[in-house]
Specification:
With about 180 residues, the protein is α+β, with helices and mostly antiparallel strands. The chain has 3 helices and 6 strands, in the order H-H-E-E-H-E-E-E-E.
Length: about 180
């Protein structure tokens, strides 16, 4: 009975954490390409992506290798290759985990179920290629517009967990007060 309560408590805590994190990312999601993107500092975006990947790992029962963290910030690019002068960016955040390859399908099933349960839409899913474990789940959050991925990485026992944010806008630079006498 205690084990069931503990599992339920963990799921509720994980769901509450994701709801809080999603709210932090989705307060002003643009509706078309000309709207202003949500405002979030790069540090906050990276911390948020780290929390999501940690939540994915906990849900799947795997350990993240902190030495593999990769945070790539790239400028937002318009449909015709244009970029704005306001430093808007996309974050592609990833981390890896060592998981026996035979367990990769189970990991992506758990991550898929968690993501779907928290409002994401699955865009891609597989457990094997040519009868061998080669797992993938790729999902998209319709209102926050971020994507989450868990997949087999390469030939060994590596799994990749990744988050790609929508276009985000850094907050305006702090204006230092000017003294007037």
């Amino acid at each position: 009975m205690t084990a069931i309560i503990t599992r339920i408590s963990r799921r509720l805590a994980g769901t509450a954490l994701l709801v809080v994190m999603l709210g932090a990312c989705s307060s002003t999601a643009p509706t078309d390409g000309n709207d202003t993107p949500p405002v979030k500092s790069k540090a906050d975006a990276q911390a948020w992506a780290q929390q999501i990947t940690e939540h994915m790992a906990r849900t799947a029962g795997i350990e993240i290798d902190p030495a593999t963290v990769d945070a790539l910030f790239t400028p937002c690019t318009g449909r015709n290759g244009e970029t704005a002068s306001d430093d808007r960016y996309i974050l592609m955040y990833s981390v890896k985990s060592s998981v026996p390859r035979a367990q990769h399908p189970e990991v992506v099933r758990k991550v898929r179920d968690m993501l779907v349960g928290e409002g994401l839409t699955v865009n891609g899913y597989r457990e094997s290629v040519d009868g061998k474990p080669d797992a993938l789940v790729d999902a998209y959050h319709p209102s926050s517009r971020y994507s989450a991925t868990a997949e087999t990485s390469g030939r060994g026992d590596r799994m990749y967990l990744g988050i790609t944010t929508p276009c985000l806008l850094p907050p305006p630079a702090s204006v230092s007060p000017t003294g007037t006498s």
